[in-house]
Amino acid sequence: MSLDLSQTITQVRxxxxxxxxxxxxxxxxxxxxxxxxxxxxxxxxxxxASEAEGCVSFLAxxxxxxxxxxxxxxxxxxxxxxxxxxxxxxxxxxxxxxRCALINLGGCVLTYGAKPDARFFSRPRLYSADDGLSLPxxxxxxxxxxxxxxxxxxKRSVDEVVELAARAQDLPPDLPAVALIDGTLILWELGGQAxxxxxxxxxxxxxxxxxxxxxxxxxxxxxxxVAQRRRMALASYISxxxxxxxxxxxxxxxxxxxxxxxxxxxxxxxxxxxxxxxLHDFVDRDLFGRLLSPDERSSLFRTRxxxxxxxxxxxxxxxxxxxxxxxxxxxxxxxxxxDAELVGLVHAVALDQCRRGNGYPPVIxxxxxxxxxxxxxxxxxxxxxxxxxxxxxxxxxxxxxxxSKRGRxx
Amino acid sequence: MPSEPATAKLAEVIAATSTAFTAQCYRLxxxxxxxxxxxxxxxxxxxxxVGNVATGPLDPGRRVLPRGEAEESEDEVYDSxxxxxxxxxxxxxxxxxxxxxxxxxxxxxxxxxxxxxxAQPRHxxxxxxxxxxxxxxxxxxxxxxxxxxxxxxxRLLLRAPLSAADEVVAACLRQAGAARRARAASGGAxxxxxxxLLQAGRFLAAELxxxxxxxxxxxxxxxx
Lengths: 410, 224
What we know:
The structure holds 2 protein chains of 2 kinds. Chain A is an alpha+beta fold.
């Protein structure tokens, strides 16, 4: 065994002892934060978040209603369809004999009610040097950005929505439906300074966001078009969310200093007497775990992420949902958030799914099962590549490092 | 060639050896009963007796959880979780007991329905097991009655490594008796169920020799 657990346990015990010491103070700070959330005014919070933009490094969400409001669940429709698509990928690997990447999209449609049904699907797509592995720079022929690492992950996220839009066309037409994505609707990575060397080139952003066939926003448009023909909502589901956008908005609202002041927004840490300083180590789900009873959802909030500014009518809104065993975050595009009936459908269906799936939506779980590339699958893929190359009498190779990992000789 | 129209296929071979095969049913729980005579393969047909039926998760890494606490009936559990039909699978294990080869000269022939000459299936192990993906169907009454008019196939069944081989032998003979009765009802000559089972009992007595305990258990299971 390489990990020395006898040393680790000492460190774990010290960590837990520290947390135990913090528990009481933390509970009091959380109770204060909850009272502040219940008293907070949506308009004032939005104004404060707007004033603070550019002055703070964190993101604060805009509440679309009273931030401390709780919404009971509407009844779930007697019959409905749930659609989900998930993805998994094999990244470019220099230990492989061919430079390539693979994205596997899988998903399912589960229909409940009078005619229960389940349909599963999966679709692998191999990207090679000659076939899509590089996103070409339109202004510099011959140059491009390789689809690998974080960018391949982004491409996969976009592909999931593109596939979701395609599959949504075939949903049973007479039933309400929810198209669910695992995770977030926000391409966070396009908003920051990643990867090394700065933000992605503009043509990469253009491709990911706006390519008519493969881009995220046209796929959102196609989903919106389906929703205009029939009762369907688009949403994404985040289990155990780590976001702090509502906590941040509350910090801004509580801060005693004006935006731009060097002392503002608790940047001096916990010793700062400012009322907002007690919130620094909470995440949104801490607050909503105290606020919401089982089955209730929070008010709607809109993210202020810079990426989402390009989303237009698909601007991402979200609510928190107490599914009994945890607080989940559910994201919806603006056109769903604007339609109370669709918000109710998402709320009811997300809860019904969690009830059927022991706390997690089975439609997402099964989509994952269709998409996942297991360690055995990865090994099979490697063998398939090598055998196919050998069958064509083309050279195969791998690194000595890979050989040593495979052999594990003593 | 099958000597009569085959019944609908209901499973497909997923693993095979010289003595047994495993087949996965196309529909959950749609398996032939224990002891049923089945055939696998189109051109080279293999006969086998169902020795075990099992239902479980398709992916052995996924554990099945109870889901029916809030449901009123078992069917509602499946209606409320439509994915289960795709995540569970019913498989059957069959003991190979005979075969019939296309185009081969058979030692025995007898008059079939309408005076048509049909191949007499052999009892014993085929030269090769069925192919993986061979279609599996339940033998018709006519086919079962014809196959089981002799008892040599029981030797393979008695020695099969099954946890309850005697129960399988008894179930097989009871179904063969019922098949003969059904054939008799449709006009063919046949002995009664009881006479047939007595003949089977005499064969078992000769086969099992001094193992009176096993013989007694089997005869009790046959009700003779």
